[in-house]
Amino acid sequence: MSLAVALCYYAAGRLGLLGSLVVEGVVVTPIWPPTGVAVAALLLLGARVWPGIALGSFLVIASLTTPGPTTVVTVVSNTVAPLCALLLLRRAGFRRDMARLRDGLSLVFLGGFGAMLISATAGVGLQVAKGSLNTSEFWPAWLAWWVGDTMGVLLVAPLLLVLAGPAGRFRLRRWKEAVFLGLTTLVLMPMAVLSPMSMLFLVFPLVIWAALRFQLAGSMLCALFASVLTTFEATSGRGAFLHLTDVEIMVKLQAFNGSAALTALLLASVITEQHATRRSVRRACEELAEVLEHLAAGEPSPPPPGPPGATESRDAPPGGHRDP
Prior knowledge:
By secondary structure, the chain is mainly α. Helix content is 73%, strand content 2%. It is globular, with a radius of gyration of 29 Å.
């Protein structure tokens, strides 16, 4: 099992490196999918698969440069950060079906923003310690690293969790609407991203539509597609990112990716929670109706209407006294 996690981590890392950017002399990725793979694997399989995360991280580093003593620090930080995310999410009562808003908020603030501080701080701090990065360049590089790791958690982990659970099973309901949404996304989203008029806002109605109708599976697929497409356009400096500096590209791209991920994740969590509440209320009403039917079937017929005390006085002889 750990070997499978390592292979998935390595494959996700190679895909993430296709959209890398250089910020202050440091190669960073706007979306780092391995963090999402690692957090999802820990939530689904447990902490016992941490060796697979460490091995996958080592393989990614080895594919880029010759491993050295500093590689150990990077591998440890890339392994500890998802493990901390797992511990924080468990302590917060996180549920893998993400059927509550608190689950979405926990994943955002604990699994993403909080736990990924470890990997970003260790990774950029190591560059400063080696002398390959100046102290004045620490914060821009750190911010880019931290946001990239966080985006991996927010975009990849929810999709893997949903697809691995019962809610991710393919259903034929609304298949016509799903096809229409997919075709609309394939047409409208590249138009919004490739246009030099900066029309990225056109993506959000599609994300909202997917969240309202198809909850997490639809919204996260839509947001991930939009973020990946936008990232590749940003790395090539085309479309909405034309004539921008590297720092401006990173800021604009991360703002868009973060907005898309948060909109898709939190809105879908709210809709899923509302649907679950509605189903619970409906089941409670059905059970209450069954109970009332059983009670009504076992009750004697009600007495005829009359003034209070009519039932007691009906059996008494005239004069109001019973015979001894």
